[in-house]
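FAQ
Q: What does a multi-component entry look like?
A: The components come first, one per line:
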Amino acid sequence: MNAELIAVGSELLLGQIANTNAQFISEQLAQLGINVFYHTVVGDNQERLSSAIKIAESRSDMIIFTGGLGPTKDDLTKETISRELGRKLVVDQEALNSILSYFKKTGRVMTENNRKQALIIEGSDSLPNRHGMAPGMLIEIKNKTYILLPGPPNEMKPMFVNSAVPLLAKMQTNPLHSRVLRFFGIGESALETELMDLIDTQSNPTIAPLAKESEVTIRLTAKHEKKDVAIQLLDDIEEKISLRVGDYLYGYGEQSLPETVFCLLKKHQKTIAFAESLTGGLASQLLTDIPGASEVFKGSIVSYTNEVKSEVLGVPTQTLETYGAVSAECAKDMAKNIQSKCKTTIGLSFTGVAGPDKSENKEVGTVFIGLADAQNVYSFPYQFSGTRSRIRLQSAKTGYDLVRRYLRQLSPFGK
Amino acid sequence: MNAELIAVGSELLLGQIANTNAQFISEQLAQLGINVFYHTVVGDNQERLSSAIKIAESRSDMIIFTGGLGPTKDDLTKETISRELGRKLVVDQEALNSILSYFKKTGRVMTENNRKQALIIEGSDSLPNRHGMAPGMLIEIKNKTYILLPGPPNEMKPMFVNSAVPLLAKMQTNPLHSRVLRFFGIGESALETELMDLIDTQSNPTIAPLAKESEVTIRLTAKHEKKDVAIQLLDDIEEKISLRVGDYLYGYGEQSLPETVFCLLKKHQKTIAFAESLTGGLASQLLTDIPGASEVFKGSIVSYTNEVKSEVLGVPTQTLETYGAVSAECAKDMAKNIQSKCKTTIGLSFTGVAGPDKSENKEVGTVFIGLADAQNVYSFPYQFSGTRSRIRLQSAKTGYDLVRRYLRQLSPFGK
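Then the predicted structure of the entire assembly, as tokens:
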């Protein structure tokens, strides 16, 4: 089965946004073993969209559309496809009800064009939209499959994963089984060097490393008609990899490093609090983005000035005057104080220079991370590089990795 | 002149990377007034690339290729185009010299396939590559323009800006001038309804609304050979729009709401601190991501539990017991206390239910935002919807918008 993606939206052709939807869907289809041979982007123009549909129909079995399901005049994807297929648009009562209830609940005024969002192509399966108003659609006509998805990624992604993927998985015969291993604290080249012989002799499963946002992932993909055999193949190769670089392996699939730490804290019934200077709330934000964060997270102090460091967080002015705010000593005081103020098992602190300018005459990228429990307090120095955003993210992730290592008794803690 | 982009690379079709090159080039072309009607992505496959070229030739005056100029076997963009055009590949001596000198300088061994990178299509202008080995090309044949660019963005972007843009600017007679207006607190449909007559009669400038992450932007685009006339056209339409929905207009171009607030705080010499419950550090993180944030931001307390709310932030236990943490009263105490603890002009607080579960028997999406200065304290209730992430982001942005309105004396403050 060959698929092709058509994104509809003049904002893409004007370069206002990148077609990240195509990346997401392609990745999902690759995991299902469905070949994608083309992506097309076309503007909010009925004639050009019609022509793109005709070209796609001539070369692909499945066409997946994103965008153009909204309420405004230039949203015309389903109108155009319904015309091409010779099918009417009909009201999807469930979608209409959910639109009506949204406006009732929020008290906002419903304009007539919102009603248009509840229309679907006659004969199609409606894909419910839990994060927006326009439902998606899946329709099969003359051995071709058409899938229509909304453009906003926060609506499209869950709809695709929850509603489209299960339907597509059923259509596949010799499926691929994938597993993604996630590593932190080791570079792509170093990881590849460690696994060189395994990578050179790979066939089934395949081993594909990929560097992304200061992390490295390895995608293992096994092909077998029997799922349990495929899973055994994946287990075997993962074991070999773990023996060599297991300390850096923090999770699987889409799991983030903060999610791993969240699960570990929960499992060990530990709690955490942060004292943040250069990360400025980022470490707290990453944890509280996880549902149920309150089970392990109590609170933080973002101490962006020395005044707040001493008066609110209680760092002794002597520490600040003698060593400066960007110092191992200050990191220790911050970690210790937040741990005792919030009465948590662990206190984690971040202080450093995010840039673009030096601070206290210390180089951009100089960072100290402190970790305190009821008995001990540690501090670790780092020198990061790159933009302000990158230094902040790298700092936060490194802090999370320290907590992971602390809880799992890995180096520099325990073993 | 109508352009079309073709990106060549199986990694795009596998979803390993997004086609950010298309976004970059499209934005550049929009600024030059060159229409882009299609983006296509095709894999490293000669037959499918040939077919994509034929389709593009049938509908566009200019085709811009990215990717497939590298040394490996699956890099076959220029080979395929040279065959389509019936032109030989010839050595670009300057490119070859620079490749030879790179290998000499680094001491790395030059393999035979590196020599392939110095080949260009006969009759084309070579576009030098300052950040990699493969030169780009521009060739005009039978009134069509073909531009070939490397795939890695760090090579492609400077090449396009430095070598291609000047050549393209010369070809253009009637350039476009764009301005993006950014709105918060009004939905896309409501905004369109307010501006319906302007949108219906638009011609020059054009008016294009776009919804994005709980915000709406409007792109105004004027076409005129004289820049000052184009700018006057943009000023005139912006004035008309501002008269109707100016209170919601917070910025221009790529400016974010936190950036707007940062600039306003700086301009009015005010400082701010946050007390965050459901936003869990997000409001602080958004501000500290801006270089120079310390000029206006002093610190925050993330009070995720009632214990931290009372013991660290100093919210009276009576407030928590009588009204609960998710209440107007608690939002007021939080804002007041963080303002006085951090000694700032403004204290801003967030409390509410981010979900997925109810809290204190209050619905997911129930949010209170408090704002305190030295004299007054306000609190505002909201009912948001969507995912946890969306509710948190919507809360943080709404808080920033309140600060903007407070500093600009707009409703619900002042006028």
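Q: Is there any commentary attached?
A: Sometimes. For this entry: The longest strand of chain A covers residues 215-223.
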